[in-house]
Amino acid sequence: MDGTLSANDLSHIVTADKAHVWHHLSQHKPWETSDPNILIEGKGMRVWNQAGKEHLDAVSGAVWTVNVGYGRERIAKAVYDQILKMNYFAGASGTVPGALFAEKLIGKMPGMSRVYYCNSGSEANEKAFKMVRQIAHKRYGGKKHKILFRDRDYHGTTIGCLSAGGQDERNEQYGPFAPGFVRVPHCLEYRRHEQDGAPEDNYGEWAADQIEKVILAEGPDTVGALCLEPVTAGGGVIAPPEGYWPRVQEICRKYDILLHIDEVVCGVGRTGTWFGYQHYGVEPDMVTMAKGVASGYAAIACLVTTEGVFDLFKSDETDPMDYFRDISTFGGCTAGPAAAIENMAIIEDENLLQNTTDMGAYMLDRLGELKERHAIVGDVRGKGLFLGAELVTDRDTKDPVEEARVKAVVGDCMAQGVIIGATNRSVPGRNNTLCFSPALIATKDDIDEIVSAVDGALGRVFG
Ligand SMILES: Cc1ncc(COP(=O)(O)O)c(C=O)c1O
């Protein structure tokens, strides 16, 4: 750390934070007698806190965001230059970085053609839901308005997004929710024994068929869209089973249901392709993205659609209701697309998709070794540098390890200077998966350091 803040400054910052900041997803009671972690500086894969302690960040800013790592001068400079020249204008007008990033992004998404800017994953998903509802009104007399979401998936924090939330602990105490959202079963093969009738063979197709059952029960003429994460994130790092996605696509086409893929976590390189769905040959109608789009250097989210979806909103210029009547004030900030252009260029110039594929495979192997060494590790899974390790007390029954002990593993790693994550306030009784999502620049040495910290922590907590 370069020491630009004195010990005095730092102690004032801690006091000010404790007195006035309400932190996200945090219990504040313990901070009456201890201090929150305050991050002062970041460089590459590492961050330093108020005590000057160095940490290796294995979760890209805790929530799968800083894909290209910390301290990227070229992004900072692009944002500086852009906001000095033209910082903002509302989205009914265009901006230079808005146009250029949209062009670049669409170049990575064959079949897609239009980019709607906003500033958080939740907001992008809300907009997709609004489009589905408006299409239902314009084409189907309001009938085809239901939106299907999947058990264990998460789409954001607003009441609308929580209505499509498949993680019951996250939703608890925030209801009532919006009507017209319907849950379909998850596709976590490791827990297929908990699903009635799940077969040993062709589980993926079976899991997709459960979606069709819900559609038939609801009535296909009432279902407008299916919203899915390509690889489920906070619900347990669930990579889809073989055969799942092709069948999902077939079902959507069969019943004229829009396929909305939530790439808020997977998007822009996390799994080793530009987008998670591109592993599975899927052709979505709508794709939402946020976190990694500008790696947290500026707030930006996008809802990307096909030209077919776009066309549905511009058929009659004399009709005052015939367009997407949505507003996003901060969707007009130019810092977002300016940062996103450089973020994407870094991924290309440094060949980070390949690195993600290679290092992801390496990390999955190394986590596999932990599974051999520790009976408590029931399953390791994921895609690219987006990995999880599910902890169970018994490999036969797959009973989950209690959450306090999962937290103890995370705490032990933190004490060693390695920041890892765990599913939390997510699926009731299933907050038992350790989460890893190092920046796409991770090296073998970084991964070895992460795995060795987890190895030590598992030994101490469960030894
Ligand atoms: C899959 C997924 N979708 C949407 C969101 C919401 O994004 P945001 O927090 O930017 O609103 C998240 C956040 O974690 C997410 O994991």
From TrEMBL:
SUPFAM superfamilies with a match to the protein in the record: PLP-dependent transferases
Residues forming coiled coils: none
Required co-factors: pyridoxal 5'-phosphate
UniProt keyword annotations, A-Z: Aminotransferase, Pyridoxal phosphate, Pyruvate, Transferase
Keyword Oxidoreductase attributed: no
CDD domains: OAT_like
Molecular function GO terms recorded: pyridoxal phosphate binding; transaminase activity
InterPro entries attached to this UniProt entry: Aminotrans_3, Aminotrans_3_PPA_site, PyrdxlP-dep_Trfase, PyrdxlP-dep_Trfase_major, PyrdxlP-dep_Trfase_small
Keyword set includes Metal-binding: no
Pfam family, one: Aminotran_3
Family: Belongs to the class-III pyridoxal-phosphate-dependent aminotransferase family.
Protein name per the record: Taurine-pyruvate aminotransferase
